[in-house]
Amino acid sequence: MTEQLLRLDNVGYAYRGKRSRDVLVGINMGFRAGTMYAVTGPSGSGKTTLLSLLAGLDDPTAGRVLHRGRDIRETGLLAYRRDTMSLVFQSYNLIDYLTVRENVLLGGPGDPDELLERVGIGAELRGRSVLKLSGGQQQRVAIARALAGTSEVILADEPTGNLDEETEASIIEVLKRCAHEDGTCVIVVTHSSRVCAAADEVVDLPKFNQVAN
Ligand SMILES: Nc1ncnc2c1ncn2[C@@H]1O[C@H](COP(=O)(O)OP(=O)(O)O)[C@@H](O)[C@H]1O
Ligand SMILES: [Mg+2]
């Protein structure tokens, strides 16, 4: 078995309000390079929270997130995010006043035309404002931007949630190639049975979560 790239070591997370609320308790999970994971679970089960901890956007309230065996707090969350991560959200988070190509350039040093080709965005669309694109096209641009960062890890939160089947299939193909051809660790939160079927491993979050209900 390949060495784990990312590991959640007894991770817990509680939102602290008037009453503290446990969302994740005692999570132990590992993720390897070159593998595509689908993370599933009902709405409210903590999937987005789990991704934000893996992304180093927030600190767990218990336990540790390990990257190559090292606590990411030791690395520093900012440096960890910058050097390791690419994120794809359901709302595409593209910059409205920039063109398609400019949005991908913001993602990192990768060649925007090559990346846009890979996600099936034709040359005629690349100089346009992203606002002129359909939802499916915008999501493909967001993925091209994520790929521009040459990251070890791609985290995606319901990336095909708003898309038709055909567009979903093309995005699944792109993410799978990232894992299998580039050796990227791809972790996709999803409700889609098609994404689950395409994944190398399906992680049902509630099975790992010892939160009291
Ligand atoms: N900022 C927040 N403050 C308090 N509770 C939150 C916050 N964000 C999410 N939650 C709660 O945490 C639980 C898990 O949320 P989330 O990780 O978004 O679940 P999922 O992505 O699986 O739908 C939900 O019950 C949600 O209401
Ligand atoms: Mg969510």
What is the SS-derived class? Answer: alpha/beta
What are the segments in which pLDDT stays under 50 over at least 5 consecutive residues? Answer: none
Largest sheet: 5 strands, parallel
- How many domains? The number is 1
CATH superfamily: P-loop containing nucleotide triphosphate hydrolases
Rg, rounded, reads 17 Å
Main-sheet strand order equals 6-7-8-3-9
> What share of residues is helical?
25-40%
Distinct compounds present: adenosine-5'-diphosphate, magnesium ion
CATH secondary-structure class: Alpha Beta
Mean pLDDT: 93
What fraction of residues sit in β-strands? Answer: 25-35%
CATH-level-2 architecture: 3-Layer(aba) Sandwich
CATH fold naming: Rossmann fold
Number of strands: 9
What's the order of the H and E elements?
EEEHEEHHEHHHEHEHEH
Question: How far apart lie the N and C ends?
Answer: 34 Å
- The number of distinct helices, counting runs of at least 4 residues, comes to 9
Shape: globular
